[in-house]
Amino acid sequence: MSIAIEAAGLSETQRQIVDLAREFARTRIEPHAAEWDRTAHFARDVLDELGKLGFLGMSTPEEYDGMGLDTLTYLLALEELAAADASVAVSVSIHNAIPATMLLRHGDSRQKERWLKPMARGELLAGFALSEPESGSDAASLSARALRAGDQWVLSGTKAWATNGGTADVMMIMVRTDRPDARRGAKGIST
What we know:
Blueprint: H1 3-7, H2 12-29, H3 33-39, H4 44-52, H5 71-84, H6 86-106, H7 109-120, E1 126-129, E2 145-149, E3 152-156, E4 170-173, E5 175-176, E6 189-190
Parallel strand pairs: 1-4
Antiparallel strand pairs: 2-3, 5-6
């Protein structure tokens, strides 16, 4: 155990989670990370394993089948994963920090049951798409749109750098839902 972790005064549970992340990173990620980078391989199987261990539900409360971790433990676990491969840590962190948090804060009970619980259990991998070629990550400059067609939404536009985009089971996509002739700035953007 590192001196920094000992100095942090972590509980036994916190230490166990960080140790599990470190051991997983050392045995399942680190030996393959250079090859994954060289071949542009996305290690979905490794993310699925992390999900089974609870790491895709780190920030989700227990009532929604997550681990309900505090921020320090969450970040220390991510740091252990990132030490082996930053891309794995980014996939885990985006899943936890954006789609899961958005569903927790803004989803209704049906959405939480359908999406959040399976995401926390690692049964679904979430992705997130904000950035666009012309606007980068400036949400106020988005041009991708969603139009209501009956009881569904039809998306149009281009996204770039969509985290987990090629393999996610569910995507959260930031789009404009206001009309071009009545732009509402940031208030015209939905997920």
